[in-house]
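Title: Prediction job returns without error message
Component: structure pipeline
Severity: low
Priority: P3
Assignee: unassigned

Description:
Job completed but the reporter wants confirmation the result is attached to the right record. Sequence as submitted:
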Amino acid sequence: MKRVVITGIGALSPIGNTFEECWENLLAGKNGVSVIERTGGVSIAGKLTGFNPRMYVDVKDELRLDPFAVYAFAAAKMAVEDAGASVEDFAVVIGTSRGGISRLNEAMKKLYGYNDASGRRKVSGFLMAGTTSGMAASYISRRFRTKGYCTGISTACASGASAVGEAFRLIKHGIAAGAIAGGAEAPVCEVCILGYDACRALSRSGSLTASCPFDERRNGFVLSEGSAVLVLEEYETALIRGAAVYAEVAGYGNSSDAFDMVKPSSRGPAGAMSDALKEAHLVPSDVGFINAHGTSTRLGDLAEAGAIKMLFGGLDVPVTANKSMTGHMLSSSGAFEIASTAMSLKEGIVPATINLTDVDPSCGINVVRSAIQDNFTSAISNSFGFGGVNVCVALKRLETSRSK
């Protein structure tokens, strides 16, 4: 079995258009939530600010692709440049929950809202190709001319973490020398907002501090857009070429609640965490901190807290929740939080959870209110999704001659 390391990271989110900017703003506790035009009962979201797609794609591709695929390529390009790797023989694995929902939303408005000047209900000839969930992976593969393993993954909000975990397995078992893996979403549109609002998942408070994981006042997540992509490589190959390393991916747990379409449980997430630790040859007391799924929903946070207590018992392991700043970028959050966890291990600092006034006593976990510094050697990152899909990725700090 081969060891796997992270050598490149690219990201764009409501708190930055590069991973470096995102990381600085995570440490600074920047809130990425902003006011949007009210849709149904929702008036806040996490939007990209100042992102220029033409830095990454030409006008034709911008028009043909859904924004989620553009975001994915932008993050992938940054990650590949960061890694400095030749990626022609790498796998490409990109997760998305909503796929091309933005372009589909526009098409539905054309079909059912208004017609063009000729009276025809007209949609783009690229609508079906440009919105398919696998197009982000395919477009990245085409642009980097990779001709091997290429797949799109959709496991709801766990999709980005699933993509990183599956890429890890491909490299570990020698199927691929490396991989470009992550998640991408562009869901801030009417149909998506109304859909999540209809199932009472979104916060209707209108407050810019509404993304408050594990807080007593939490009342739903804040929908956000963005992408995060990582370059993973086989450890020895990365070492030989003198690559700088963020962290080692050491374990991957994937479980199903087998319980309900939307209601979460604690046993499924606990199983995913346990499996990730076993593969990483870790025990709960080895874990320095947990980067929580932490979406700011009443039941979701309670279920995750229950899973943490189930596995970690009386251990007072620190828990941080990046979504308090970024909002919920769906699949992108899973990949982004793995990247953040890797950076925390490398830098020896864990970002705080913002917007936290009073930790819900029913949760009863050690949520990080202020950034903490320590030489943590290992950590885990959680991602869960509708349908009861649970993913946990375990990371280890790697001491090498070069660091990012």
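Comment from assignee: result matches the submitted record. The CA atoms of residues 169 and 203 lie 36 Å apart.
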